[in-house]
Structures
1.
Amino acid sequence: MRLTRQMLALTGAVAVLALAGCGSGGAESEVPATATGSLEHLAAEAKCKPDMQTDADTIRQAICKAGKEKYVLATFATDRGQREWIDMAKDYGGHYLVGRKWVAVGEENVLDDLRGRLGGDVEEGIDHSSMDHGGGAHASGHAGHGG
């Protein structure tokens, strides 16, 4: 897989969000059909004013706010590019809300709320809390939560 600067930049943003801490689980609500469209369309559906970070042919990325929390919203030119990015990003841990050619990355409670607007499937990154990586920056109690 060839890494691009845009993929590395988004992966870096994911790492920051993943290491920021764990959210509390929210109640499952009715999930709508998964939204599709441009980053701007998805942001409007999510009631977010996107702060564009990357605007490239293969990936577009923006930071959105949900109250005091932030999340990353990204769209991809291809399904394959999206899946490769997700597979690589999951090594950083974190929580991912995944739709067709888009992904949102943030705290679990933020994504639960966002899922109620955009639909999609929740995926979880690798839990590194049991690994020694400089003092356990992301020690969590998320081990094996059911979804």
2.
Amino acid sequence: MSALEIGSVVAERSVHLTRESLVRYAGASGDFNPIHYRDDVAERVGLPGVLAHGMLTMGLAVETIVEWLGDSGRILEYGVRFTRPVVVDAESGADLTVVAKVGALDEETARIDLTVSHGDTVVLGKAQVRVRLAA
């Protein structure tokens, strides 16, 4: 891992979600809430459409830094605020963009700030990962 500076981008990626992605995640997680796969239910409860699972979004976001870290065991803490939903259209799906930047440094750890967007909307607030620098 090269020398880090506050503000440096350490990883970034885009992820395309489909309704199939949501069904697969529901099966893996056991979260079969119909707002994640049925338009009629989502509409009936006042949502703008079928939503991606928050934990799916959170997991995809942190996975962005794993290759850079080289070892997911170096993740010490991770937290987010769910600020905006990710609506997954039946035809076009939804694209998430994740940018990981160094937010703070000390001798042993770094705080990596994740910006997770769907279009022009940031969907996770205060998405921060504290990682151990030395293996």
3.
Amino acid sequence: MSYRAEALSAGAIDLGLAWQPGFAALGTDFLTRLPARPVAPPYLVDASPAVAALVGLAPGALDDPAVLDVFAGNRPAAGTASYATVYSGHQFGVWAGQLGDGRALTLGQTASGLEIQLKGAGPTPYSRGGDGRAVLRSSIREFLCSEAMHGLGIPTTRALCIVGSDTPVRRETTETAAIVARVAPSFVRFGHFEHFAARGQIDDLRRLADHVIDRHYPECRGGVDLGGNPYAAMLKAVSLRTAEMVAQWQAVGFCHGVMNTDNMSILGLTIDYGPFQFLDGFDPAHICNHSDTQGRYAYNQQPNIAYWNLFCLGQALMPLIDAEKIALEALESYRGAFPAAYLGRMRAKLGLTDARETDADLIDRLLKLLAAERTDWTIFWRRLSHHVTGATDAPVQDMVIDRVRFDAWLLQYSERLAGADRGLAGESMLKTNPRFVLRNHLGEQAIRQAKLKDFSEVHTLRRLLAAPCDEHPGFDAYAGFPPDWASSIEISCSS
């Protein structure tokens, strides 16, 4: 009996979704089919109505205990046969060999073209001795940050829901299990390509690349760029998407924390929210991952690490591209695209609608000042936005100790804005510079309450972060300076 037949006979639940073969059609060289491992009676922590609508779930579907069982991994979804994929990768710059979905199971691809994956659904053949589980604290962080990044307009995987359970999970201490249902057009990573290239499985490498091109990059076929080589064209397209994504990270002060090649999306999506952080005080060398003892993934290293990872992807694709010059040309697109994208994002933060050669100096002078004083990144930009709309300059000046240096910069900035409609510039800045980001202490407060089965802070943060540039009257505390204890929060790769 096939696994699908077993699933149906075991009481599969019809979610009302039409399923397509998608990635699973590539076959057993790419994945292993297996069911999720059940947990103790589940409960809903939170769900995103927007993502539910995106995948085609009926309103209120998650209120049904049988549907909740599907997203807990306790019962299969009708029409699916869940699977874990195999990949390899470089971790902290070192080749780690075979990896894979060690705690994630993909249910399948819906008719909307989106894959639904359960993270924390139990062990797989790629768990490397792990239990395949995720805990409540890390699941809340991933759920909230996925939706927060979407609210900021940054390419990301999405999160449908968090399901909790009292099933114990042992980490540094005993915690409880949780499962995040996450959603994306594809969960293919750079590491998928590295896996087949490293093993010399060139036919499988080509099948994977063709799958990604045909489904996500059809424009890479039939072009004249890069000698008409579709695999080089894909490498260039991925490089450009990655450049834009990382530029957005830098502009909003987001630190990913663990940019291994197996954590890099082939679609240029932010994926795998582990030890991430939004900057409080601006420190270019900030390391958000307690496990990153060498600072490889510090905030100011992210642009270079993205290129390093793309180079690894390029090496993996070389058997298909078969021309070093063309491959390097595809990769070099990142070197031009990232600075342009970053400068564009920083101009937008300053309300500048045209480009001038002096802008780079204006931005650099400001960043050096903010770094010297560890000025709060998010609050500074928000106050500057209000200042440009016509508000008094006192709130933004009060954030800087070296007033002489800041006033000199502010004069240069005002001269740059001369002739522009400052009201319109300020309004544009208020739509660009968020009032709310998922600071570590906000996530920690939500986690502490959730451990007591109070999920109100999770709900509140999801709603605020869905529209982070809105004022949200009555929620000023969520946009304030972090408390002193926030600096003692340590986030590591443990989850």
4.
Amino acid sequence: MIDAEELRRRAQELLAAHPPAATDRLDFLKARFDAGLAWVHYPAGLGGLGVPRSLQVVVDAELEAVGAPDNDSRRNGIGLGMAAPTILKYGTEEQKQRYLRPLWIGEEVWCQLFSEPGAGSDLAALGTRAVREGDEWVVNGQKVWTSGAHNSRWAILIARTDPDVPKHAGITYFVCDMTDPGVEVRPLRQITGEAEFNEVFLTDVRIPDSRRLGAVGDGWRVAQTTLNNERVAIGGMRLPREGGMIGPVSRTWRERPELRTHDLHQRLLKLWVDSEVARFTAERLRQQLVAGQPGPEGAGMKLAFARLNQEISGLEVELRGEEGLLYDDWTMRRPELVDFVGRDAGYRYLRSKGNSIEGGTSEVLLNIVAERVLGLPAEPRTDKDVAWKDLAR
């Protein structure tokens, strides 16, 4: 039986065998993965020990106390939060062994090829085609809003493999090598000036069948695992008190008393309380995950995340007055990660506008909460039994 004390002992053994000050960063992370201390709830041999997810904090605390390197999770959020749990659930043993270790240590960054110009909120309407030729699939189509595609080695991809069945039934899930011929990444410049998102064009990209996740035609079910984990990854991240967007505006309030008004005080108090409620709700959700895969409840957390970020950043701009209208840098850049708290108030205000779109629009998530969490009647659908090729487009 592996308990908290045993995990502490194993963490100390890792530190003794690989002193962080004298060990190359990647070598230390590889040793941590091999010791089962990467994500402890994963199976033995895949970076874990098969123990409850809640015990991860025991390992993290031991390693953080001595300044051991981490795997820079923000840089590979899609890989860690979305690709890894999907591979764990649906991947073959060969796929798990090939992808999970370099993914966790950060050697290979992942992106997500889901949304398309004509299939965003209605993702199941996607038109990217994958046609089988022997042991390979030939993929043609266009994806959009792909975060970090310019830095990624691998992508999780869903494509239509059968246009003669209803849209949810004819989709298959693949792992796509972003360095393969026919994969073209183009930057999408955003309102912030940056291009963290991309368009990805796929032209006769050949994907071996060995890189398929799940059964042919079962991609929508596999994708639900990815999407449920995505919403938890975005809205259910672990934060300290005044972590996230509420932190900078709270500091400004304390340090700049000349900016205060009664109305702003009341609004800040409400948003501070709402942030704490969201933080504790996220903690409860993470505890529920110990029992299994995330369900539709993560949609509620992602909804709260988007609303709070937009309201808090708007309050911060208003609190700062003329200063809030300034913007530090409009230079076209292709960043490796999104840093909400490391930039100025103007950046936070503009970037948070995307929070209600990325990871599922707020409108779609409201439907998910209504139908799959609250059990309300589903909206009428006229396309449920219509073959994808016969849908109006």
